[in-house]
Amino acid sequence: QKEVEQDPGPLSVPEGAIVSLNCTYSNSAFQYFMWYRQYSRKGPELLMYTYSSGNKEDGRFTAQVDKSSKYISLFIRDSQPSDSATYLCAPADFGNEKLTFGTGTRLTIIP
Amino acid sequence: ETGVTQSPTHLIKTRGQQVTLRCSSQSGHNTVSWYQQALGQGPQFIFQYYREEENGRGNFPPRFSGLQFPNYSSELNVNALELDDSALYLCASSAQDTFGELFFGEGSRLTVL
Prior knowledge:
With 111 residues, chain A is mainly β.
């Protein structure tokens, strides 16, 4: 079993829709939960991070963590064509130097 | 402010050869991490360097080695290349006190024939 599982998609939705992206993880030590966005032919860039369980909102993006079920979500409201990218979840435990990335979900927003 | 730069952007090698990839970290960052991203997969952690010393290593064999220089730039060396080493190699820099916030370069695309 992989430490982090993420549906690779691809996922296509019409512009303006709400997008839900999800990951599950198995390592109980994970306390930090990052979402990275990767455009085609580019390196990943940090989108958001949360610590422990709960929600965090940043503009059109909301990150949600449920540690009891080891479930991570990223919601995108009012999706735009510019949101078309691969979204990678990356949980980590403090004191461990590495990030453990999911496979990434390829998202396309159709104008 | 200069971001993370990597070279070369693309290269082709044959099985058994050796390769060196280079990375210049973002200004003010003293930590460099290397990741391997196979096609359709998420990045996998190779190792991290902090103040010129290895500071954590992923599940990669010893033929993957690295260096960090006093100016915090870094090299990734891979010996005895195998076909499965074909991937995008990503370098990421970070400041020591910003856990999880990595700044990635655009990567070096390695093809092994």
